[in-house]
Specification:
The protein is mostly helical. The chain has 2 domains: about 1-60; about 65-124. Helices cover about 85% and strands about 0% of the residues. It contains 4 helices and no strands.
Length: about 120
């Protein structure tokens, strides 16, 4: 009788030999999909929290929304309204004004990033 049971079990094992691998692959793919969804969710939550922190800074007047742009536009207008002695001075002033705009935008970006990081980490 023991031989019959072993034979019957071996029949099932031989017939379904590939099925456990397929089941494991299916579970792994479902787990990968779940992990990707969780990673995407964490990424979106972090992005949303960064946006909320920036809005908080703007509300509390720590970071003003258009502060840099207003100053830059005024500087740009002043530099453009100057009458120049020659074309070289005009070109130089034009390059300087655009350089100021680019530098100020970069500084603005860095300041916002550092303030948001401080809020996230909890530093003072």
């Amino acid at each position: 009788m023991n031989n019959v049971i072993i034979f019957n079990v071996s029949l099932y094992i031989e017939d379904d030999f590939n099925y456990p691998d397929k089941i494991i692959q299916c579970l792994n793919s479902q787990e990968l999909k779940k992990r990707k969804k969780e990673e995407l969710k964490r990424f979106l939550e972090k992005k949303l929290s960064n946006r909320k922190n920036l809005e908080y800074l703007i509300e509390k007047n720590i970071m003003k929304k258009e502060d840099w742009n207003i100053r830059l536009n005024e500087t740009h207008k002043i530099l453009n309204n100057i009458t120049y002695k020659n074309h070289y001075e005009g070109l130089l002033c034009h390059v300087v004004s655009h350089g100021l705009v680019a530098a100020a935008k970069k500084v603005d970006f860095i300041l916002k990033k550092k303030l948001v990081n401080r809020l996230i980490v909890g530093e003072n």
